[in-house]
Amino acid sequence: MIRPINTVKPPPPPRVDPKAQAEQTTRLQAEATKLQNEIRLANRMGEVDAAAGARQRLTQANAELKTAQPTPPMQPGPELPAAVTAATGNGVATAPALLTVQDLGGGVVSPEVKALEVKAPDVKASDILKAIDGGKSIDNIAAEQRVAPEDVVAALNAGGMTAVATEHANGDTRTVVITAGDRTITENQDYQHGGYYTQETGPDMQTTSSPIRDDLGRKETTSVDAQTGAITTTLVDDLGDGAVTERTTNPQTRETTTTETSGNGAVTVTSNLPNGSTVQTVTPAGGPALPVTTVTAPDGEVTTLAQSQTADGSGVPAIEEQLAAGKSIDEIAEASNLTPEQVIAEMNAAGLEVTQGGDPGETLQIVVTDPNTGRTATYNNDYQHGSRSSTITEGSTETTSMVDGNGVTTQTERNTETGEQTTTIVDPVNNTETKIVVDKDGRRTETIVETLNDGEPIDYEVKPGDNLSDIAEANGVTLDDLAVSNPDLFTNPRDPDLIHPGETVVIDGATRT
């Protein structure tokens, strides 16, 4: 059989615009780097879906990058030492990949295409190793040299050492194993949680570990309070200016406090509160300057507290007392030479949420909530009818105090779970006090107590057959009350049971039920 001859010439290879190809490659490289950072940040923040989406886009970007970068023809290169070569199936010795990628099961998968062109850092391999011994990570060194971590690994290999970097779990972690003479140094980098440490095995085969450091190279230690469960993380910048950062998270109060002491002694304390507010107090180093406290409200408004104010909540009871008396935030601020924003900021700093509502000029409602304890205080002011009220709810107890336009006060305490309720109504015009009790079964008892003689002492003239016990009972007082207002009747050797018609008994606080 004679094979036919194809006289049609194959089409010429597509013409490649070197400039356009370079621009596309640069764009894809930048996109790949950005996506890698997004994956690490998403993992660190626990955003699983965001990390998965970024990985999918990274796979597509790497595929496009492979297409955009044609494989160059093989060029003969310098012979590599046997320690860093590997035999292929056809017997050709090639340099092993400096960067491999392993899945969670330990199997080797295709490495991601590195998005940065390899650049030689302006530092020797011996200096890199010295920096690692001093506590710096490969990423720290790369950032200082303005190159990629891969470039630092390449510089170590070019300097006569063997350095192999391996990424695990889709870039969540990375290990770099450096062999320098009889030393083996393994750097373990955790991108998901942010931190790294090294392990070194010497000629005696003994392994030592360095302290754990965060991404910035600060020495990191963590402690837990067994009673409160509070977790305290301390970061010491021993590689820099010696600044110390201490961060405490309390799961009971849901509050995070960070204390930063700079190298020159300035102290910044920042508290993130459950109500969404942030309180920051800056104390300058030395000098006469006073601390400055700023409060960032949940809505993002930033207010600087006056020196007369406190951020620890000690001034809040006085503010709430004025609110219960019917004062507005504006009135409280004016009386204290503050702005309304400063009054609210002081309450926010104490962990409270403050909202205002009502019809301007007619009604005003201010609600103060403590998200940590669940306590809610609602202050209402009805300018049209001259009445005001406050309702405080703590747990299952609801307490309401009200004053109407005639000065009548009503105090009600109710159990929201059982329905039990006690109400006391004081009418200063009619000199009466009414007490209404409702038990858990809905039974109602009402008692009215009238204040006699407008509350002034009564001079009672003893009548035949009277005794002090009957007089006290009839006027709603006790014998002890009579003893206070009539000391002569109870002075020894007189018998207080012997009183005579025509004598005067002074009764203070007489009432009738």
What does this structure look like?
The protein has 513 residues and is α+β, with helices and mostly antiparallel strands. 23% of the residues lie in helices and 32% in strands. It has a ten-stranded antiparallel β-sheet with strand order 18-19-20-21-22-23-24-25-26-29, covered by helices on one side. It has an eight-stranded antiparallel β-sheet with strand order 10-11-12-13-14-15-16-17, with helices on one face. A seven-stranded mixed β-sheet has the order 4-3-5-6-7-8-9, with helices on one face. α1 packs antiparallel against α2, α3 crosses α5 (149-158) and α7 (329-335) crosses α8. The N and C termini lie far apart (131 Å). The relative contact order is 0.04. Mean pLDDT is 82; it is low at 1-14 and 71-118.
List keywords for this structure.
513 residues; alpha+beta; 10-stranded antiparallel beta sheet; disordered N terminus
How many strands appear in the DSSP assignment?
29
- Name the average pLDDT: 82
- The rounded distance between the terminal residues' Cα atoms is 131 Å
Shape descriptor reads elongated
- The Cα radius of gyration reads 41 Å
Task: Please summarize the sheet with the most strands.
Answer: 10 strands, antiparallel
The chain-level structural class is alpha+beta
Strand order of the largest sheet: 18-19-20-21-22-23-24-25-26-29
Tell me the number of helical segments per DSSP (H or I, 4 or more residues long).
Answer: 10
